[in-house]
Amino acid sequence: MDAFYTSVEQRDTPALRGKPVAVGGQPEGRGVVAAASYEARSFGVHSAMSMAKAVRLCPSLVILRPDFTRYRQVSRQVFDMYRSVTSLVEPLSLDEAYLDVTENTWGEPLATTVARRLKRWIREETGLTVSAGAAPNKFLAKIASDRDKPDGLTVIPTQRVEAFLQTLPVEALWGVGPVSARRLRAAGVSRLVDVRTIDPRVLRDAVGSQAGWLRRLAHGIDDRPVTPDRTVKSSGSEHTYPEDLMDLETIRDKLDQMARRGADWLGRQALRARTVTIKVRYSDFTTVTRSHSKRPATRDADQIAARAMLLLGRTEAGTRPVRLLGVSLHNLTSADEVSDEHPGLPL
Amino acid sequence: MELTVRKTQLLRELQLFQGIVERKNTIPILANLLVEADDGAAEIQLVATDLEIGLRCRCAAEVTKGGALTLPAKKLYEIVRALPDTEIRITQSAAGTVNVAAERFNSRMQTLPREDFPALPKPSGTGTVHLPCAALLEMISKTQFAVTGEDTRYFLNGALLVFSGTSMSLVATDGHRLALVSISRAIPEGNDENTKVSDDDEARVILPKKTLSELARLLGDGDDVLAYERGENHLFFDIGGRQLVSRVLDAQFPAFERVIPKGNDKRVEFERDRLTSAIKRVALLSSERSRAIKLKIDVGKVEISSSSPEVGEASEVLSVEYEDAAVEICFNAQYLLDFLAVADSDSVVLEFKDEMSQAVFSPFSTDGCDYTYVIMPMRI
Q: Does A107 reach chain B within 8 Å, measured CB to CB?
């Protein structure tokens, strides 16, 4: 779905159409942008940016508090449409999914036609636009869907996979974050296809155990099946720093960012977490994890960040140098199973 | 430091600190109580804080040798509670430990350095407002339950106190229901400053959830009048010499007035006790997750019903005076019971428009105290 939350808002409130709109927290405090309309994006506003910065970039920005109940309703409506075409639907978030349309109820032989029909149908039913990518596997389909937005359709037929791969930068690889990308670029890899020819030892040094997987992707090979209704059990991120972190303020800052990104992810998945876990690896590679569980589950960034800070207090970070930090969220529950049937007051 | 103190007197104060000290034990000193006294003084000062809220009390004592020390608040309370009604001797030893003794009992506890104890802000003494304790306590008990413990909307983690002219209101909401109490002529004449701001003659401040409950505890034990002062970052309440200090909840409370419906044209009056017992019985078979009960309001009667897919269903009929069109409206049973428990009148009134719009419960009689409980119906 294109700019999903804001598109729903603009659809339902005509006065917002054509205006820069962002859904997310308030700029006072530490609210972040959960979604930005295309009008807002032209000012440089994008999701995960702090709302304060977004307002600086775009003073006329209309800020709306997210209404997940409504987004979930629309999401359900769209997913129902997907599932009427194929049973192999793998949701990535409220507004993103993989569909395996090799077999489809329309009997369409071409994925491209299925994508085109679905796009039209969704637009008619919901008034919202979708960008789609049709390709032989998940890796390529995902890149293709990001190619042409909004309301785009990018098709990569098997015979054009190689030509397509040749155009991609190394960052397009699934699982290559900014740090690995920097290391790969330092090793002389800038295009995705360079990964094929790089010395395996250099690749292993740069990306560790992911080396084999990335090499297959660089050949356009990805045989992961589309798995319907995969339930997410946890989410986390960790980061190894190029230089050990000594300063507690810096460590707190990094951990705070990760915790907030985790909260942001929960928001997008319409989930809440009961458990926050942090991981600290000291310079001598000894690793500790600290966990905190509490009811009710939350997706509030401030709370999750505060709990990560408390947990940090139970490590030796700041007195011992730290090479890796991680934050993960567990014991996930669906965000609003009760609020669906219990609407809120119009505060 | 060396002093003796009467058990009953110390115990009374220590009780008040149990809700104040930090329980999560993340910063050890916050689990401690600071005890301070001057040489030869006739009282000691006790302080505890979790950095959000703090309490300062005094207790009569015989101080032989002044000083300051910190003790684990919970342990000290347990020990004092377990002692017979007698004199308790508290003595600081050289090696950073403290002896607490009485009659033939003796104990020694670890202390934490006094220097680690955070400073608790003090009121400036200007702009003090005197408020009636009983009125404030009543307002807290009628709204407190609607404050959410934990909400992403930060402002909902407290209740809004509004001063307007001589009247005082307290509002709390968890986003699904809202409780509003107003007491007119609550504030004695001659109070100004804090209760007034220049333009709209109204002052607003959010009292955090924990502040509400600790305030209620202190008010229950207290005087007629409390002294309130709003500092820049802290609120100060002086109740009979005990000083509660609360950090200001830095958030904007929503325009709650908008939520209170105006066009509720249908009305049912209930006997409070009968409605309460009926809901309690019927709710036993409501869905455990949603706690939903249905009120089927029809000419002359209301049928309260529930059903739980796993267990079964229940219903009970109450006779009422009602002439309008039949309506089925669903509520969270707990939300209704919360209100009914504190609405101190024989009858309560339900006013509503349809099964989707905000309904309002209120006690039938109101003498000077206006109580409005707005509740969002559930989807049937």
A: no
Q: For the purposes of burial, counting CB atoms within 10 Å of the CB of A101, is it exposed (0-12), middle (13-18) or buried (19 or more)? A: buried
Rg (CA), chain B: 25
Of B152, B332, B379, the CB nearest to A299: B152
Alpha-carbon Rg of chain A, whole angstroms? 21
Tokens of B177: 């229901």
* Beta carbons within 10 angstroms of residue A36's beta carbon: 27
Within 8 A of A342 by CB-CB distance, chain B residues are 176, 290, 332, 376, 378-379
Give Cα separations from B143 to B161, B181, B335, B343 (angstroms). 11, 7, 12, 11
Pairing state between β A62-64 and A21-24: parallel
Distance CA(B144)–CA(B338), nearest Å, equals 10
Domains of chain A: 4-66 (3.40.1170.60), 69-158 (3.30.70.270), 168-218 (1.10.150.20), 234-340 (3.30.1490.100)
Cα B119 to chain centroid, rounded: 24
Q: Is the pTM of this model over 0.80?
A: no
- Read off the pLDDT of residues A275-305 as tens digits, 9 standing for 90 and up: 999 999 998 888 899 999 886 678 778 889 9
Query: Partners of A184 in the beta sheet?
Result: none
Contact B263, B251 (CB under 8 A): no
Distance CA B126, CA A262 (A): 45
A302: which chain B residues are within 8 Å (Cβ-Cβ)? 154
Residue B211 — φ and ψ, nearest 5°? -60, -40
- Tokens encoding A205: 């040094």
Question: What angle do the packed helices B333-342 and B272-283 form, to 10 degrees?
Answer: 150
Look at residue B135 and give its three-state secondary structure. helix
Q: Which parts of chain A have pLDDT scores under 70?
A: 29-30, 229-232, 295-296, 335-341
The reported pLDDT for the residue numbered B197 is 42
* Record: contact B290-A296, CB cut-off 8 A: no
ipTM value of the model?
A: 0.73
The structure tokens listed for A12 are 């339902």
> Could you tell me the CA-to-CA distances from A179 to A325, B21, B111, B252 in Å, in that order?
14, 44, 47, 40
pLDDT value of position A231: 63
